[in-house]
């Protein structure tokens, strides 16, 4: 729809009503480049396994060339018997480079709290040269993502500190890493665990 300017649902309804669609609809010209990412309630750091729970923060991007189709909102209880698709984020621009840049900005503006989602994976993806250049194949995610990029112990501690300060301090940012006796439970045994539990399930305001 973004590269043709057509409303495909409207076209379907016209066909169902017995109309014959004109040539400009049957053979539309293409303009620009569009990319769509589907945000799922899945944990990319855990084999893209499904997640469930209550959606906390819900912030979707907007602006020129950005379209969002979503069927949930903040406060929605996502059950186990569900379609894990939360939203489709689509961008359109003059060419692929501009579309990737627009998608990167749109993902930076997106925030979903309360559960693990594929947002982190998509944000990682748009920085991969193989993706930006369009040279990927069906093995790319398996080969390049594997279990997801890991953080160093220092990075994980800083990330957990930011998330904790944001959640408990009304947006206050603490510049120093949390000492071990103040860090979230479990971080010392596994530096990434604090980040996994907090940063991936809470939306951090920029």
Structure summary:
By secondary structure, this protein is of the alpha+beta class.
Description of the molecule:
By secondary structure, this protein is of the alpha+beta class. The protein is built from eight helices and nine strands. The protein has helices at 8-16, 23-26, 96-109, 119-125, 129-132, 140-145, 153-168, 191-198, and strands spanning 33-40, 42-43, 49-50, 53-54, 58-59, 66-70, 77-78, 85-93, 111-112. The strands form four sheets. The protein has a three-stranded antiparallel beta sheet. A two-stranded antiparallel ribbon has the order 2-3. A two-stranded antiparallel sheet has the order 4-7. It is globular. 25% of the residues are buried. The model is unreliable at 171-178 and 184-193 (pLDDT under 50).
What is the number of strand segments? 9
State mean pLDDT (0 to 100 scale): 82
Q: Given the C-alpha coordinates, what overall shape results?
A: globular
C-alpha end-to-end distance: 32 Å
Question: Approximately how much helix is present in the residues?
Answer: 25-40%
Q: In what order do the strands lie side by side in the largest sheet?
A: 1-8-6
Count of helical segments?
8
**Cα Rg:** 20 Å
- Poorly predicted regions are 171-178, 184-193
Q: Which structural class fits the helix and strand makeup?
A: alpha+beta
């Amino acid at each position: 729809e973004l590269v043709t300017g057509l409303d495909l649902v409207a076209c379907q309804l016209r066909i169902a009503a017995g109309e014959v669609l004109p040539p400009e609809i049957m053979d539309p010209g293409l303009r620009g480049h569009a990319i769509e990412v589907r945000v799922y309630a899945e944990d990319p750091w855990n084999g893209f396994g499904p997640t469930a729970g209550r959606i906390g923060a819900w912030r979707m991007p907007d602006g020129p060339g950005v379209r969002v189709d979503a069927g949930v909102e903040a406060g929605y209880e996502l059950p186990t018997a569900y379609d894990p698709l939360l939203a489709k984020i689509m961008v359109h621009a003059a060419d692929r480079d501009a579309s990737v840049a627009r998608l990167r900005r749109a993902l930076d503006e997106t925030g979903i709290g309360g559960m693990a989602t594929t947002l982190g994976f998509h944000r990682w993806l748009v920085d991969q040269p193989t993706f930006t250049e369009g040279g990927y194949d069906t093995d790319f995610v398996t080969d390049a993502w594997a279990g997801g990029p890991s953080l160093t112990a220092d990075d994980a501690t800083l990330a957990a500190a930011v998330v904790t300060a944001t959640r408990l301090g009304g947006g206050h940012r603490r510049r120093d890493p949390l000492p071990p006796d103040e860090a979230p439970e479990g971080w010392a045994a596994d530096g990434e665990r604090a980040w996994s539990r907090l940063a991936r399930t809470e939306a951090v305001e920029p």
